[in-house]
């Protein structure tokens, strides 16, 4: 049994391999055939030859051939290497035609070439004069032939020659625009309406070259014209289909007056086919069939209805056999089609990916630069041992090398000599001088030049300490630069990811929202959903609403909240933003917590300008930053210092760099820039609005206080003010805030106002705990008032700033409004939207 199973498995595997091999060969053969066809038609000029042959046979108004010279001139201008093929094909078409205009074609081509050569001599850009050259060649040739054959030129001959030359003039401009479309020399840009009509005129003109090709009563040009209408109605819809039908019918009616009713048939069929395009090919074909039956019975009578239906049947058969890839290729050039939109999206995606790729390369570059600044350091003990060895080598070079007892000390008693000198180095490094008498006695009993050696150790140790401090500063600078580069790298990496995020289609949800709001009586234009992710919902819409009564905030936002099962708030409102008077509204998810702040401040001595500054910054939609900066001293200089510190910090934080790196960067800038003793403190609190988690970074600032009910806690950290030293480690204190907490932040002038109190922080806690209200502005005002009144004379000896922030759970002002009045419909609608959003 096992053998049979294994044999069956081997047979199945071999069959699959053979199938895959056959499929691969078919794919290779298909690609080779495609490449060969492309080479044959486009590069070798077979398509030019076919079009030229049919245009050589074409005639309108029973005696005019205005297609020959425009086609030759256009090919001569655009594809000169195929001009000979085009000329030969045109002549062949005239030979096998019923109009016998080969003499006109030969002479007209020759005169055109002579005129073009003359224009090239006198004009810098003879291509711009191409229609005029064709007009001249046509009218001269036609009138010359008439004069030679009849000996005179009648008014009728002059009129018809002028009409033919005028048509040639117009067709030249049309062919110049449309020939690149059929020769594959056009890029992927969408076609303008004028270019589409030019292309249809060219194709219809080519179809007139099939006049006379018929089987019984079935005319080939009618089938081809209806096939053309089917393609464009299926690709472009009713507007394009009817336009193609009118233009094609007009050209055919000029070629043959008997085909005048074809204009109505083709236009009506294009309209019906375009309206039924949602039924795919069968729907478009059915539209053509209905249009054929109606117009055929009405316009041409019932005698030839069977021939008309047969012509339509041939067109439908050709349409059904047309490869889907051909239709998709045509649709890419028609504005408004799905294929064109996808082509545009693909182009935009390429641009976006290229931009994101460059940003990612910059991010990688900054990451590499950051790693290059991170020097691999040895362990402290190993580094210290190496440094001591180098120091002692310098000492021995200056002292022991010239001593006669060198061999005894460093060969016979190496360990004792090395240990004694190392102990002296360590002692001098710690105490600054050699003050241990025991070590001095031991060394004097061991060395013949004790004072000289001790002096050398003193000098080398001092240099070692200076070099060590310099090296530490360099390493700190390298570490700061590495952190800054890493921060920039992360920001750019996140930005690259944001660039590559695509707006996901939410057509079902958008339609459902539109229907729901319109069903509730709202005049909604359109809705765009940019994100439906929980907690990050972004919705924009155009709507006609009453702004004075807050209709968007009070009605639309609660309706959306009921739909998405999440609190939605109005983010931005732009009244009468659109030309039709509609307003632009932006809605988004509400954060779990909201911040409400109050500020009280006063300058030293009651002056107008305070050295303190504060800032409340909302970083994106997730974090809220509160900062107080106190410039050194008072007055204008302190004000400028603190305001610039906050401005720098705000810019760096808003760029997305982490707060500790941001503070180090600002400190580095300030320390490098300062030429005077001007420093500033910084008190920064970063609060996450989703979970109320807070980070405190205090740079030379006073403690902050958190009031939770009747309990007051202190938040403090020890860091020097900004700008004093280039490098320092930022101590971060983290606290979990809760609903209703009050965060009190203040400058040093507040705590230092009560000089007679030893424990000022406890004094401030008591003031805060005695305040009954929880309104942030009232709390700030009460604290400032009590601090000022705590001293005799109410003297303000320093700038004072108090910022009080209350953390609150977000409670929407308006409850959600159900969309549907009936409970059953309401539940059904909710279930549908929930399934549609995938939540």
Descriptive notes:
The protein has 839 residues and is α+β, with helices and mostly antiparallel strands. Among the domains are: 45-184, no CATH class; 380-484, no CATH class; 507-583; 593-809, PPM-type phosphatase domain (Phosphatase 2c, domain 1, 4-Layer Sandwich). The strands form four sheets. A five-stranded antiparallel sheet has the order 7-16-15-12-13. Strands 8-9-10-11-14 form a five-stranded antiparallel sheet, covered by helices on one side. Helix 3 (68-78) packs parallel to helix 7. The protein starts with a helix and ends with a helix. Residues 596-807 form the PPM-type phosphatase domain. Keywords: Hydrolase, Membrane, Transmembrane, Transmembrane helix. GO terms for molecular function: protein serine/threonine phosphatase activity. InterPro entries: Bact_Sigma-Reg, PPM-type-like_dom_sf, PPM-type_phosphatase-like_dom, SpoII_E, SpoIIE_N.
């Amino acid at each position: 049994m096992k053998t049979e199973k294994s044999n069956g498995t081997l047979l199945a595997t071999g069959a699959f391999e053979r199938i895959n091999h056959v499929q691969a060969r078919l794919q290779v053969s298909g690609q080779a055939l495609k490449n060969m066809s492309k080479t044959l038609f486009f590069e070798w000029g077979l398509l030019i030859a076919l079009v030229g042959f049919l245009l050589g046979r074409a005639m309108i108004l029973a005696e005019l051939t205005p297609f020959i010279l425009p086609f030759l001139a256009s090919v001569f201008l655009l594809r000169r290497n195929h001009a000979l093929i085009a000329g030969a094909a045109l002549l062949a078409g005239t030979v096998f035609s019923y109009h016998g205009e080969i003499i006109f074609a030969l002479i007209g081509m020759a005169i055109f070439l002579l005129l073009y050569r003359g224009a090239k001599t006198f004009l810098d850009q003879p291509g711009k004069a191409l229609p005029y050259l064709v007009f001249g060649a046509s009218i001269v040739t036609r009138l010359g032939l008439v004069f030679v054959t009849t000996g005179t030129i009648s008014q009728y001959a002059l009129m018809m020659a002028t009409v033919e030359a005028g048509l040639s003039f117009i067709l030249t401009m049309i062919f110049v625009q449309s020939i690149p479309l059929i020769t594959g020399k056009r890029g992927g840009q969408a076609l303008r309406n004028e270019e589409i009509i030019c292309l249809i005129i060219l194709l219809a003109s080519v179809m007139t070259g099939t006049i006379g090709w018929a089987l019984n009563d079935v005319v080939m040009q009618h089938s081809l014209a209806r096939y053309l209408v089917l393609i464009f109605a299926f690709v472009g819809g009713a507007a394009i289909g009817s336009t193609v039908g009118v233009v094609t019918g007009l050209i055919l009616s000029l070629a043959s007056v008997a085909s005048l009713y074809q204009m109505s048939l083709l236009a009506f069929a294009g309209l019906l086919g375009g309206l039924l395009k949602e039924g795919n090919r069968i729907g478009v074909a059915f539209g053509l069939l209905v249009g054929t039956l109606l117009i055929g019975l009405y316009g041409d009578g019932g005698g030839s209805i069977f021939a008309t239906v047969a012509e339509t049947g041939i067109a439908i058969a050709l349409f059904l056999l047309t490869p889907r890839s051909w239709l998709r290729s045509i649709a890419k050039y028609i504005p408004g089609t799905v294929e064109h939109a996808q082509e545009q999206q693909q182009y935009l995606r390429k641009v976006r990916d290229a931009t994101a790729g460059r940003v990612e390369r910059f991010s990688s570059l900054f990451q590499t630069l950051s790693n290059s600044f991170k020097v691999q350091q040895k362990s402290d003990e190993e580094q210290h041992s190496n440094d001591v060895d180098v120091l002692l080598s310098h000492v021995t070079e200056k002292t022991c090398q010239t001593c006669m007892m060198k061999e005894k000390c460093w060969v016979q008693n190496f360990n004792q000599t090395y240990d004694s000198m190392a102990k002296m180095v360590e002692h001098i490094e710690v105490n600054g001088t050699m003050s241990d008498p025991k070590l001095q006695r031991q060394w004097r009993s061991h060395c013949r030049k004790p004072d000289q050696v001790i002096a050398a150790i003193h000098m080398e140790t001092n240099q070692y300490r200076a070099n060590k401090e310099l090296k530490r500063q360099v390493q700190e600078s390298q570490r700061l630069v590495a952190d800054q580069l890493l921060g920039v790298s992360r920001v750019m990496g996140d930005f690259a990811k944001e660039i590559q995020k695509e707006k996901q289609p939410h057509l079902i949800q958008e339609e459902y929202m539109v229907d729901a709001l319109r069903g509730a009586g709202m005049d909604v234009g359109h809705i765009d959903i940019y994100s439906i992710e929980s907690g990050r919902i972004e919705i924009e819409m155009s709507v006609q609403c009453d702004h004075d009564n807050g209709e968007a905030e009070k009605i639309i936002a609660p309706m959306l909240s009921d739909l998405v099962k999440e609190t939605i708030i109005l983010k931005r409102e732009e009244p009468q933003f659109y030309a039709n008077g509609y307003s632009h509204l932006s809605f988004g998810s509400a954060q779990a917590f909201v911040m409400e702040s109050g500020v009280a401040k006063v300058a030293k001595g009651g002056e107008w300008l305070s050295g303190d500054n504060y800032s409340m910054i909302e970083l994106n939609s997730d974090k809220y930053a509160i900062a107080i900066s106190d410039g050194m001293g008072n007055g204008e200089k302190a004000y400028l210092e603190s305001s610039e510190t906050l401005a720098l910090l705000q810019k760096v934080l808003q760029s997305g760099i982490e707060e500790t790196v941001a503070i180090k960067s600002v400190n580095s800038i300030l320390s490098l820039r300062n030429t005077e003793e001007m420093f500033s403190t910084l008190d920064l609190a970063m609060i996450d609005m989703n979970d109320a988690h807070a980070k405190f970074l205090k740079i030379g600032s006073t403690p902050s206080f958190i009031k939770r009910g009747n309990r007051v806690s202190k938040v403090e950290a020890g860091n020097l003010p900004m700008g004093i030293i280039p490098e320092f480690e930022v101590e971060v204190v983290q606290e979990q805030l809760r609903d209703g907490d009050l965060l009190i932040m203040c400058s040093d002038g507040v705590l230092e106002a009560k000089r007679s109190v030893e424990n000022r922080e406890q004094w401030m806690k008591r003031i805060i705990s005695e305040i009954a209200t929880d309104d942030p502005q009232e709390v700030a005002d009460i604290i400032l008032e009590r601090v000022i009144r705590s001293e005799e004379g109410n003297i303000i000896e320093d700038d004072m700033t108090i910022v009080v922030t209350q953390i609150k759970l977000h409670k929407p002002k308006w409850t959600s409004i159900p969309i549907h009045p009936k409970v059953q419909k309401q539940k059904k609608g909710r279930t549908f939207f929930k399934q549609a959003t995938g939540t």
